[in-house]
Amino acid sequence: MTGPAARPPAPHAGLTDTPVLRILVQGRSLAMQLCVLLKTAKIHDVGNVAFHGPLVNFIETVEQLFTAEGEFKLQAVGDFLYINQGRLKLDGSSYASYQYLIDEFRNRGLSGFAFNGKVTPPEVKKFVRLFLDVDVKAEDPYEGFSAALLKLSVEHLVPLRTVVPQTGAINVEEARDSRKVAKRTFYRAIEATKTVMLSGRDKKPIDLRKAKRAVQSIVDLILNEEFSLIGLTAIKNHDEYTFQHCVNVSILSISLGQRLGLNKKMLGELGVAAILHDLGKATIPGWVLNKPGKLTAEEWKLMTDHPVQGVKMISKLRGLNELALRAMIVAFEHHLNIDMSGYPKLGDHLAMSLFSRIVAISDCFDAMTAHRSYRRTPFTPYEALHHMLVANREKFDPLLIKAFVNTVGMYPAGTVVLLDTNEIGVVTEHNSRDIFRPKVKIVADRDRKKVDGALVDLSKREEGSDTYAVGIVSALIPEEYGVNVADALT
Ligand SMILES: [Fe+2]
Ligand SMILES: [Fe+2]
To answer: What is the 194 CA–ligand 1 centroid distance (Å)?
Structure first.
């Protein structure tokens, strides 16, 4: 399998494929039907018989698209509508309907919707009512709408907040903008975590508001799938690693939770619990945390006490609520392991909670790939994943670890790979539809000369053929090839 490196996908890439064409045709139907639904509901109530026909058509189209695509998105970008990455073609008969939708979305601060399941008539009726009831003059109409949908359990139509300026089509500039938003969110979350951890260390009252807001932005970004935050977790900043670790674990846990179908509220709680999982470490002196070499029995006791210390600290949070209780359970259980081989030692403990099992996986993965004082070189993300899947498999929930592989891919972001073109690349993002074929940034050409190469989507096939343009031969150790992973990811 040799051939030219695949080019970054263009908006019309693959239009000759029948399935792609079919999805664009269904996408067009979906947009037209949504427009009819909204317009009908403005005149008649959703209970009126006039609403019934459009409702049935819309539900059928959602079902067809969901069967073909899995989760899919209908979004407005600039003056166009997109179904996933495919732009809906404008023509005389569709123009007015598309423009109507684009304006209605924009008025509500939305770029569109993700459909994460088949929808039912009651759900669509609630959705349409709430959509039309949005106060478009509110400071943040998206927020109220999103909360109202959640309150009425409308879970399969997820509103997407506008996070990029709505000018121009999907292009490099916009990709850069969404990357900027993602980075800002990431670094704000680190700052918020730092505040929480340092308050804990100094025995000051812990204010969770900033951390909660940061997690909410992470959840929004992950649900919007504008830009993969997982790539950012692969850049380990040694100075801030303790804080970054908590944010990384939060991002990985939310991503895994999304894969499992947790709703937005649950994802928010999971994200906050993950941020707080190592709060107890704030009580451990830095020299113990960063000690090169083996810990003494006393130091190990201090280290393994952090789950209990974490519970104590979270229990002091003002206004104990369900979120704090979940966070306490995660802090207490995240090192237990499902075979109870970890710590604290409890004898016959009940099963670990779902959140703890999720956080335990994200925690181990991130910790293994970090530069640790007692390892000369950290595990590569690829090695860490394989270690967890093989040598350590008894420690983790087998179903969740499979879902985790689907979340980060077999070659997680940050893995250095040798391609069958003999070029070397760094994985920047996984492809949810093919875990073996991620997106890769080329960093060395076939003569091993360093280059600032193209971003290649390994799931793309050669034009007019079933053959993939480029494939992975093996994962490499970055140090052996002089590859700076962080450079490729930033
Ligand atoms: Fe921990
Ligand atoms: Fe941790």
So the answer is: 16
Residue whose C-alpha is closest to residue 380's, from 290, 457, 479, 291: 479
Which residues are placed with Cβ below 5 angstroms of ligand 2, an ion? Answer: 278, 363
Q: Alpha helix (H) ranges present in 370-457?
A: 381-389, 398-408
Give backbone dihedrals phi and psi of 82, rounded to 5 degrees, phi first.
-120, 140
Q: What domains, with CATH codes, occur in the chain?
A: 18-161 (no CATH), 178-408 (1.10.3210.10), 416-489 (no CATH)
For residue 99, the tally of other CB atoms under 10 A from its CB is: 15
Q: How far is the CA of 481 from the centre of ligand 2 (A)?
A: 30
Residues 352, 338: contact at Cβ < 8 Å? yes
Q: What is the pTM of this model?
A: 0.65
Q: CB within 5 A of ion ligand 1: which residues?
A: 278
pLDDT in tens, the chain (490 residues): 333 333 333 333 333 356 778 888 899 999 999 999 999 999 988 888 889 999 999 999 999 999 988 899 999 876 678 998 787 876 656 777 888 898 899 889 899 999 998 999 999 999 999 999 998 888 889 988 998 998 888 989 999 988 644 332 334 555 556 776 787 788 888 888 988 998 888 888 888 888 899 999 899 888 887 667 888 898 876 667 888 999 999 999 999 999 999 999 999 999 999 999 999 999 898 888 878 778 899 999 999 999 999 999 999 887 668 889 999 999 999 999 998 899 998 877 678 999 999 999 999 999 998 865 555 667 889 999 999 999 888 999 999 999 999 999 999 999 999 999 999 999 999 887 789 999 999 999 999 898 888 889 998 888 778 888 899 999 998 888 888 887 788 7
CA 360 to CA 367: how far, in whole Å? 10
